[in-house]
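input
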Amino acid sequence: MKRVLSLIVVGGLVAVFGCSKDSTMVAAAAGPTSEQVRVIVTMPTTIMASDVFVLAGSFTKDAWTPDKSTTTLMKQADGTFSVDVSTKDFDKKLEFKVVRNPKNGTDAWLHVEKDAKCDELAGNRTLDAATQGGKEVKIKVENFRGTGTCPK
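output
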């Protein structure tokens, strides 16, 4: 299998991107800094290769607007998706949800995550800058509205 690697350095952080034979983009980077929380997401089997996933939440900029989110999850070699969230982007605690393929405007929440029974989550997911900075947080998305077993 042929593998193409790209190295990107931004603000002293190094990210290595690799493209495998099937053109799936994967990213590998060192662990999160003390001012970041790495969110690692296991997705349901109903997702498609072309899907884009973001975190939408109580960020200090563009709060609760998935179509403007800058926290795009990157697919990893193990099949999970992840993003490093800067603790500077939220005020102490971050509430969030995972959104699939956010569209502009009113349809931005069309494919928000749902529980195993296709119901709304009991509450928003949370990150705590004080206790989770520099750590990895693993979550599992069961379903998305309008896809797979959740038609509505």
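quick obs: The radius of gyration is 16 Å.
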